[in-house]
Amino acid sequence: MTAPRLTRTYLAVPAHRERMVERAAGSTADAVFLDLEDAVPVGEKNAALRTAIDAITRLDWGQKTVTVRINAIDSPSIAEEVEKLSGLARLDAVLLPKAERVVDVIGIGERLSQHRGGRDHPLELDLLIETALGVVNVDALAAAHATVAALHFGVGDFSASIGARSDEIGLSPRDYRHVASAAEEHRETALDLFAYPMMRILIAARAFQLRAIDGPFGAFRDNQGTLGSAVKAASMGYDGKQLIHPDQIEPTRSSFVPSASDIASAQRVIEAMRAAERDGHGAVTLDGRMIDLANVRMAERILRFAS
After folding, report:
1. Same domain (yes/no): 201, 274
2. Over 223-265, what HEC string results?
């Protein structure tokens, strides 16, 4: 992976909706992906590609990470999409939906490496893990090609893939609960459908030094739901979260930015270990707890998000 970049807020926008694309370019999102796949009707696919190319070339994207979600691997347009997008100097990555098989990832990675246009390096390849097969193969997919830079979790299609009884993106089914025994008065505890796939994707990303991006929370007008979903992803260690509406940018960003107390604590850990190392120690006691270099690595990650 290239130098780390902040991708806390990853705004999705249909590529054929020119005004929405322009608003996304001017937004405060860290990253944007222009969608050529699910958000675009079949009859608008060609127009979406043209609009995406024009927007990437013409608009001022500032410091944003700019990505295009191409169509699925079996799409008749994918070869044209990869070839035309590869030469765009301002484009950072392409996002492959429904990534499931290593051979497909290798094929796209090789195409990106061959069609560089005027670029001195190939585009990064992000993988959208959104099916049962994708989760089963996620370790191999993460290591499939040198261009792979990030794993995204596709919560909606994953729910459909496993047959979950829900039609809400990013929410566990209402009836997915643990029911206690009669002796415990049949108390119910809500369960998280996404805990396992999120952790599998995160571990694969970390194992191969990739970014991990959580999927969107579909009820974009539910500020508390947006916030809670983002807090979960940030707490787990994800690098960011996909958004489907600009109103989700600020609550999501705030979830990934550590608090003032978290920042102060991280700085104290680093300073304490520096002092310990100067004295020839590999560990030190701070506030009644033992800290060592593992704590420093955790603290440094917290500070990387402090902006």
Report:
1. no
2. HHHHHHHHHHHHHHCCCEEEECCHHHHHHHHHHHCCCHHHHHH
Same domain, 13 and 140: yes
130 marked as binding residue: yes
pLDDT in tens, 116-142: 666 777 899 999 999 999 999 999 999
pLDDT of residue 186 exceeding 70: no
For the chain, the C-alpha Rg in angstroms (whole number) is 21
Q: What are phi and psi of 40, to 5 degrees?
A: -115, 125
Same domain assignment for residues 129 and 66 = yes
Any binding-site annotation on 157? yes
Give the containing element (helix H, strand E) for 34: strand 31-35
Asked if the structure places residue 3 within a domain, the reply is no
Residue of 215, 237, 236, 211 whose CA lies nearest to 226: 215
Sign of the dihedral defined by the CA atoms of residues 214, 217, 220, 223, in that order: negative
Helix (H) or strand (E) holding 137: none
Are 154 and 96 a contacting pair, CB within 8 Å? no
CATH code of 42's domain: 3.20.20.60
> Is 69 annotated as a binding-site member?
yes
Q: How many domains does the chain have?
A: 2
